[in-house]
Amino acid sequence: MISNIERCYQCGQCTSVCPMGEQEQTYRIRRFLQMEKLGLETEESMVVPFIFYCTTCYKCQDNCPQGVNLVDAVLAIREKAVHKGKMLEAHKKVGQMLINYGHAVPTNTDAMEKRGLLGLEERPPTVQASIEGLSEIKTLMRLTGFDKLVAESEVEEQLTENAAMVQQADFTQQQVAEEKA
Amino acid sequence: MSNLSLFLGCVAPNRYPGIEAATKKTFSKLGIELDDLEGASCCPAPGVFRSFDKTTWLTLASRNIALSEEMDDDLLTICNGCYSTLKEAETELKKDSGLKKEVNEKLFETGHEFRGQHDVRHVIEYLYQNIGVDGIREIVSNQLDLRVAVHYGCHLVQPLKEAGSGLVTNDITFFDELVEATGAKSIDYEDKMMCCGAGGGARAAVQDATLRITEKKLQNMIEEQVDCIVNACPFCHLQFDSGQQDINKNSGTNYEIPVLHYTQLLGLAMGFSPEELGINLNSTNTAVFIQRIKEGFVTA
Ligand code: SF4
Ligand code: SF4
């Protein structure tokens, strides 16, 4: 079992303080943990893409009476999904940025101009100014297989909010009822 | 004590270089010359890359630390996300020799080695513990007469809590104390410890919802009539600064709160101009704020 989620007794105190859950009805952290615990792989479509919405803010974890390491659990559930070839399009792009440039957020002309105004080198002294450094990064990502992992993942459709709401409507109603009970 | 190398990460050098400039200037004023960490990469970001593939995340993180160790430096980060990644990697590798061996087998292929003889430091934690609130107070030349909304950020607090630093208590104050050492007043506001909304890859995955989290924080800050937001993380900085513009565009609102990284606030208090610190380069218009600073929002 990933992390220490066997300690969870489904009290829902995690969901009740979750800022993403407050804004996004489809995001129910307690539910995801329960599905993971029960090994409901067939209902994965309910977890992906939603599990990727977590901001990793630790509020749920701080509020859990059972000391469950929720953020570790979220990251581990995501890692399983990614290793099954499921990534969000936006995250695949971020992955490709890292592979190509060594930065998740690489420089652009606007940044270079601002750096000039501040008297900084146009390119920061990172891997962006070091061909050798970049080739080291690429070697490491080849050794870990990260380049392949990103290249071969199929992109999960990033549901528009409305589509997501419709898809999850029943499930959410049930969830709200459960949480009120 | 070791020297320090400056780990830039992605967002500071490539979106908010004012934070990089402010860090170098303020440390210089403190008598500390920061070494460049040549060839460093993305930390890599904790919420996304750690969750895509933990081995890749750990390997690239350990390379960044190794580069700093090769210069006999402790590594200084100016970003909460980088701190979370690099501190966690450092801790795991220092305590698990098997894991360290595995990572080093890969690093050797690129001529590096993680030795684990140096520390990863966050700028806020470093200033608080090594310079001290009194040390900051002494070096400040301009008292800032500002009402500040301090935003700690989740990945400053969590790693410090895990490291048992003693800084994270129910009544957490270390960042507020540093802000007040500049003469500014840290204003309490509702849900102060709440997330900016951006972390964990959420900004990329579900931007609208993350902006609603941000907007809620902005409203709580406005309620207390603050003059600016002060953060410790370029990614929170981005979410608050460029996020205000996104929210304004999407919902016709008119948010215009200046957003400063702590090093920029400290820079003002040390007498650097807003332009030298890049405060004019935010997405959200800071002209009024800058004007007020120049007209004696500070007292020399
Ligand atoms: S707060 Fe903890 S015990 Fe309660 S449902 Fe959430 S994870 Fe389970
Ligand atoms: S860490 Fe994720 S699940 Fe937990 S409260 Fe924050 S957004 Fe919600």
Automatic annotation (TrEMBL), chain A:
One of its GO terms (cellular component) is plasma membrane. Pfam families: Fer4_8. SUPFAM superfamilies: alpha-helical ferredoxin. Residues 1-28 form the 4Fe-4S ferredoxin-type domain. InterPro entries: 4Fe4S_Fe-S-bd, 4Fe4S_Fe_S_CS, HdrC_iron-sulfur_subunit, Helical_ferredxn. Transmembrane segments: none annotated. The keyword Iron-sulfur applies. Belongs to the HdrC family. This is 4Fe-4S dicluster domain-containing protein. It comes from Methanolobus vulcani. The lineage of its organism: Archaea, Methanobacteriati, Methanobacteriota, Stenosarchaea group, Methanomicrobia.
Automatic annotation (TrEMBL), chain B:
Residues 6-87, 148-241 form the Cysteine-rich domain. It is an enzyme of class 1 (oxidoreductase). GO terms for biological process: methanogenesis. Its cofactor is [4Fe-4S] cluster. Keywords: 4Fe-4S, Iron, Iron-sulfur, Metal-binding, Methanogenesis, Oxidoreductase. Gene3D superfamilies: 1.20.1050.140, 3.40.50.11810. Its EC number is 1.8.98.1. GO terms for molecular function: 4 iron, 4 sulfur cluster binding; CoB--CoM heterodisulfide reductase activity; metal ion binding. Pathway: Cofactor metabolism; coenzyme M-coenzyme B heterodisulfide reduction; coenzyme B and coenzyme M from coenzyme M-coenzyme B heterodisulfide: step 1/1. Pfam families: CCG (PF02754). Belongs to the HdrB family. This is CoB--CoM heterodisulfide reductase subunit B. It comes from Methanolobus vulcani. The lineage of its organism: Archaea, Methanobacteriati, Methanobacteriota, Stenosarchaea group, Methanomicrobia. The gene is hdrB.
